[in-house]
Design a protein that fits this description.
The chain has 170 residues and is α/β, with parallel strands linked by helices. It is 29% helix and 20% strand. The chain contains 4 helices and 7 strands.
């Protein structure tokens, strides 16, 4: 099973007057995710399903990806993808869609970095940069506690060696 972990793009900064859940993408964030989506499209990447954290910035990221990739389904808000998402939550989501081959999960840091670190058994951990997409190959069923990195796309940088992920900051 291929899973695409997507960190939301750049969002407006936190302020006392704006609750975290409604922080939206900046113009730079929208531009960045469009650029990423077009690169994915150019490489023939397709998602079978897109789920997103219910926080506005993640839904906006997912919507832009869906639109530019020509995704015909609906973006599914998934409360499990809100901050605090972990491998157990990922397994619950993936078990709900056992026949899907390319599920995109749009969420947040530090959750996604922890999941990548755990699945790849990275000794120092990693952080997913804003707007990055990690393509992982995971077992089709059961408790997915290990995986293989196919690639990570961070802007124009494509990483294929998991050792290049350790110690990254996002």
């Amino acid at each position: 099973m291929k899973v695409f972990l997507v960190r939301h793009a750049e969002a407006v900064e936190r302020t006392g007057s704006m609750p975290d859940a409604v922080r939206h993408l900046t113009a730079r964030g929208r531009f960045s995710v469009r650029k990423t989506a077009l690169r994915l499209k150019g490489e023939g990447i397709r998602f079978s399903r897109i789920l997103a954290s219910p926080l506005v910035r993640a839904v906006q990221t997912a919507d832009i990806l869906a639109e530019l990739l020509g995704f015909e389904g609906e973006v599914i808000p998934a409360p499990q993808l809100a901050p605090g998402f972990d491998v157990e939550g990922m397994n619950v989501i993936l078990d709900a869609f056992p026949d899907d081959a390319g599920i995109a999960l749009v969420g947040h840091e530090p959750d996604l970095g922890r999941i990548v670190s755990q699945l790849l058994s990275l000794p120092r951990g990693c952080a997913m940069p804003k707007g990055a997409v990690a393509a992982l190959v995971l077992p089709d069923a059961g408790n997915r506690l290990c995986g293989t990195l196919e690639w990570l796309l961070d802007g124009d940088r494509r990483v294929v060696d998991p050792s290049d992920l350790t110690g990254r900051s996002g």
